[in-house]
Amino acid sequence: MSLGSSPESCVISWVSSSEPNPDVQFYNSTESDSNTGSAYFAEVQMSSSSSIGYASLYTENRCGTTRLMSSVYIEDCSDLSNGYKVRNLQTTSGSGSKKTPVNSFSDLFCGRVPSASSTSSISSIALVADMSDYMFSPGEYVSSIPSMTDAATNGEIDLVIHGGDISYDIDDDCGRRGDGFMNAIQQLSTTVPYIFGVGDHEGGRKDLNVDCHAPSSGYDYEGFRMRVGEATNAGQMIMAHASGSPTSFYFSFDVGFVHFVVINTNAWIHACQYWMLKPQMMWMEADLNSVDREKTPWVVVIAHRAIYCVKNDDSECTTESEAMRYGLPEAAYKKNINIGEWIGEVKGHDNVFGIEPVLGKYKVDLVFGGHTHHYERSYPSYDGVSVQKDYVNPKGTVFVVGGIAGVGEDAFEEEYADFTAWRDETYRESWGHLKANMTHAVWTQRLANDGGALDEFTISRE
């Protein structure tokens, strides 16, 4: 389930090998799975402002595997807590072109969407990055999926944002690895909306022997794009288009008091994705400029690659993070030089498309990312240093790295930087939990094994 184009709407999507003519059975408050009564189907439930959409997902030619995506847009999702089931239909030949079931109904799912902002409500969101599940690396690490599922079922979280690196990797084994991950999050993602952003494992790691200016330059993120519905304007793409974005690579949405902006940080790292920087940055500035901070006082950016981090002397927390922070050296941008191959300082070369000036201009409160497999947080920071050592009326942006929701760790080999506030050197798997009202945003890093608190801090505006 993902968000729709309005606060009350949502999109239910599923993947199967069946013809994608979707059918959804809803239940009202007096009905149950065993006593359907007047339970109604999608065709009956849809009003004139709603629609039933479906689309072909993709065929993986290298394996001959076909997956089809069904997607249903629902204008009012307030009744999903009473239960719904999904299946596929096929049109039979003959008079009337009757539709008959292709498969049985799914299990019964009970879901909900976040409530609209009010002075009495609290926005509660789970944030993760770099997360697989049990089935591919049993015993190697603890996945955050069960802990977040419990939190969603118990009403502790209203939505999940997965900031890239999904299942390691979503396309592996002819897509079966992605299938396994989607099955693993099924209970979670049918209970509350589950929003995906892109990471480096979704695309962008090929050589430069391709047309570096073409959108289909070998970095097309096929498995990601198709599973979120980009190729067919279904699924998550309905929400992306509502934010004025043409793509699933960058988009925005509101959850109560928080405005979330999801971006593709690979565009700063790989030369064959530099073409994306200009449209992404133009969209991002326009989006941030449109936020009404009286209604949504908090702005959070989801950026998979860490803009501020400390790890070791490789390029992730040096050249790469600085390229995102300050922008690409103009020579690297014009000559299509991968930023990881840039020699010398990044800053001070007529840099273009730096993100930090935008974060500062629009007073972005927090940036969440992953990529480096550990948990660390910064003080409010700007230009590579902290601007204060507390979180009261911050004059800079707070950066949280949480790339350890279900994956092996990256050890810290460097000392704390000036901007570093705290980091977990025990490398326990964990996930972020953000709760916000009009004046306070509380971040709790929760352990994957039992949901307990690993770390907590509060940003306040008084």
From TrEMBL:
<dbReference type="InterPro" id="IPR004843">
    <property type="entry name" value="Calcineurin-like_PHP"/>
</dbReference>
<keyword id="KW-0325">Glycoprotein</keyword>
<dbReference type="InterPro" id="IPR041792">
    <property type="entry name" value="MPP_PAP"/>
</dbReference>
<feature type="domain" description="Calcineurin-like phosphoesterase">
    <location>
        <begin position="149"/>
        <end position="375"/>
    </location>
</feature>
<dbReference type="InterPro" id="IPR029052">
    <property type="entry name" value="Metallo-depent_PP-like"/>
</dbReference>
<protein>
    <recommendedName>
        <fullName>Calcineurin-like phosphoesterase domain-containing protein</fullName>
    </recommendedName>
</protein>
<dbReference type="Pfam" id="PF00149">
    <property type="entry name" value="Metallophos"/>
</dbReference>
<dbReference type="GO" id="GO:0016787">
    <property type="term" value="F:hydrolase activity"/>
</dbReference>
